[in-house]
Amino acid sequence: MFNTSKTVKLTTAQALVKFLTKQMVMVDGKKLPIFAGMWAIFGHGNVAGIGEALFPARKELPTYRGHNEQTMAHSAIAFTKASNRRRMMAVTTSLGPGAINMVTAAAVAHVNRLPVLLLPGDIFANRRPDPVLQQIEDFNDGTVSVTDCFKPVSRYFDRIMRPEQLIPALNRTMVVLTDPVDCGPVTLAMCQDTQTEAYDYPLDFFAEKIWTIRRPRADAEELDQAIRTLSIAKKPVIIAGGGVLYSEASETLAAFAAKHGIPVVETQAGKSSLPFANELNMGGMGVSGTTASNNLCNEADVILAVGTRLQDFTTGSWSLFKNDKKKIIGLNTQNYDATKHRSLPLVADAKIGLEDLSLGLGKWVVPIAWTTRAKKERMDWIKIAEKYTKSSNVERPSDSQVIGAVQRALGSEAHVMSAAGGLPGEMHKLWQAGIPGSYHMEYGFSCMGYEIAGGLGIKMARPDANVVVMMGDGTYMMANSELATSVMLGHKLTIVLLDNRGFGCINRLQFATGSERFNNLFDYNTKQDVSPAIDFVMHAASMGAIAEKVSSLADLEAALVRSKKNTRTTMIVIDTDPMETTDAGGSWWEVAVPEVSTRPTVVAARKKYVKALKGQRIGS
Asked: Which CATH architecture has domain 220-380?
């Protein structure tokens, strides 16, 4: 309860901003504001309310202007991911299109369990001027607003229609944002008239508060069950998911694996949990995994799944774990994830859970033959990977060869990131991460357009890092405007643009499922008179970036080395082959193929699909 004898009269928006500036967190022993800033695009739904409140608070809560509501929210999301969910950002927009543009970003945060505060403008609470500009009207429900679209993709949603509603709403907001179990996007829809209305807020509502990121400990019975299950395992594997990084448990995981001799495989979100050089790191798993990881997963009798959602790319659509006697231990802060597919739950923080497991296992070690086998599988994969990443004089190199060139030029300490398309699969197999958190992939929602904005968010969280954005021309065309923001803010990114003239990844999938190649690559379109010849160098330069195009892998490496001396965002463009891909490694992924078709290639693909389904285990 607050003391109401001492109050201060503020507008709702002013109270919101003042409250946010008083929320703190301890990071490495240093007290920091939990909100590192506010991303804002102003419109009539927020400029007079939140916009007015932000200006006098710009030192305590810096305001950053984006170019698109979705992408500036992506930057906020990437920031908190790169901060291991210790710090976060807020995002404000106007109502109507500005608000609904953020829904995709909200889904990215929701899927990836990443906290972000979304503050879209909303209609007038008093309804006197209805319908206002950009208002969506429901003929049967007067309470509906465009911001209702945020409800399915928010961990907590509230519509602020009176000034005093802000008090309980912000308390609930902070609880959700800082809870490792429930954290994700919070949406407070801010009615535009309410933003400007004044209220006598209790002074102690604005008292500084230091939030603690909870580390829940496992239930004793669940812990005992996990210890008993692991202690009789002959061929166990550990899946390192994103929760390992969020828990800052990389050193704990390395010690656990080494002590007990258990090989570690990595999801997209968990890659870089262990440095590539760790001899028990088998690399990526599943659809885009290494042969080392997938061969071991096929035989594993116990799978310790740490901080992972067990999505289909991780499990090979549940065809990967072929041992019928296998057991899965779900070590996760969220019971929903810990119990997937009949896993034995171990609901706990990843770091604490691994420490308690190790203590309970004592001196137990897996049979030496399994550990030795794992190390051999790893070395065999490294030799295979080198064949795909080595340099050549080919006119249009593959994605894997470009990855190799970037690795050689910039080293394993570069912070590399990407999102949807073909690159995530190649990078999951082939990139050799050297530092925990230096591999940043948005593959939970697989959102095209995340890359440049996400790279900016990483750079803001880790200003000393060499942030390398790898992306295709298709996703660049979807969302490139935050390149200008990176220049404007002075946050240098290195962007490697692989131009395969369209959507190469889906073109390959289209072909693999028996369909005719069309509508993905410019050169295979059925309705066009001219194939676009886009000058990406000129486009990037027009937004203030240093840009050049290279014609070979050797030139790419040289350009990357030169880029280290540049002081602003640099983009290097290279033409690539849309069909070449790393066919080694990987596992089956379920993509439904038509049951009937006039095309013989589709009929043949359907037969392969039906046969593959027989190897799929049905989860629950």
From this structure: 3-Layer(aba) Sandwich (3.40)
